[in-house]
Amino acid sequence: MDSLPPLAAWGLDGPSPEELTGGSRNTVLRVGDVVLKTTRRSEAALRWLLPVQEAARRAGLLVPRLLESTSGTLSADGWTCEERLDGTAPVAVPASLRPMIKHAHDATYRIAQRPGFASVTDMPARGRHGDVDMDAIPAQIANTLRRVWADMVVERECAIHADIYPENLLIVPDGRLALIDWDEARRDRPVFDLAAFEEHRPAASVAWEVACSWTLEPDYAQRMLARLFSSFPEYA
Fold first, then answer.
1. Is 52 helix (H, G, I), strand (E, B) or coil?
2. Neighbours of 174 (CB within 10 A)
3. Cβ(80)–Cβ(32) under 8 Å?
4. pLDDT at 188 over 60
5. CA–CA dist 192, 201 (Å, integer)
6. In whole angstroms, what is the distance from residue 199 CA to residue 194 CA?
7. CATH T-level assignment (fold) for domain 1-111+164-182
8. What is the mean pLDDT of residues 76-102?
9. How far apart, in whole angstroms, are the C-alpha atoms of residue 70 and residue 10?
10. In sequence order, which ranges of 65-152 are alpha helices (DSSP H)?
11. Which class for 150: exposed (0-12), middle (13-18), buried (19 or more C-beta within 10 A)?
12. What is the pLDDT of residues 19-73, one digit of tens each?
């Protein structure tokens, strides 16, 4: 752990922080009934999540609430604080999640792009957008990724979670389903969420995994690139 979170920023004086497993890009700590996470997101990008997560709750999902610091911000010294939800991760993404995700999509078509992010439709050739650093990706690979996205079926964009995997789901004791880790959420095409319910992820989804992992998880990015070329040889 690089540094301890500013517990006083949320008025916390309980047990010592306990590091949780599962966070591949951020440090995740449990302190009593809350969870603290490191974040690279701006205050505006965190505020964007509030109506998006509320739409998910109205669709029937449990979503941990981001908690404001004593100064009224959603982050302090590069950390966020949210409610802790206890549960068990499912073995696979349950089919029962799909209608809830589609309901949340339908409620967020009018939401603007998350500050600091870009969809595949608007992804500039250079610069950093969310976790995608186009300047760091070799030109030939970046061009291939854009070609994959250009071949996508045109869809109306909405707010998406963008990281639906079993490890980001919890089945709570009363049987309800919780969706956690909204760090990669943005406005984009629904297919990036709905791919979670397919037996094989489409090329666009695999290409996005390459792009957003290139600098933060390079080994994973290389595995996803190999998967893209082997599963979709037309892009190799």
1. helix
2. 7
3. no
4. yes
5. 9
6. 11
7. Phosphorylase Kinase; domain 1 (3.30.200)
8. 97
9. 6
10. 97-106, 139-150
11. exposed
12. 887 656 789 999 999 999 999 999 999 999 999 999 999 999 999 999 999 999 9
Q: What are phi and psi of 62, to 5 degrees?
A: -90, 135
Least Cα distance to 16 among 26, 27, 29 occurs for 29
CA distances to 16, 31, 157, 183 from 5, rounded to whole Å, are 11, 10, 35, 18
Distance CA 176, CA 215 (A): 35
| Distance in angstroms (rounded) separating the CA atoms of residues 189 and 196 | 13
For the stretch 127-181, pLDDT in tens is 889 999 989 999 999 999 999 999 998 899 999 999 999 999 999 999 999 999 9
Q: Are strands 18-19 and 28-31 parallel, antiparallel or unpaired?
A: antiparallel
In this structure, the number of other CB atoms found within 10 A of the CB of residue 101 comes to 23
Q: Are 177 and 67 in contact (CB under 8 A)?
A: no
Which residues, other chains included, contact 146 with Cβ-Cβ below 8 Å and sequence gap of 6+?
123
Q: Are 92 and 49 in contact (CB under 8 A)?
A: no
Classify residue 151 by burial, with Cβ atoms within 10 Å: 0-12, 13-18, 19+: middle
6 is written with which tokens? 């500013």
Domain ranges of the chain: 1-111+164-182, 120-156+198-236
E-strand ranges in 49-121 read 79-83
Which token pair is 132?
């995608």
Task: Evaluate whether 224 touches 212 at the Cβ level (below 8 Å).
Answer: no
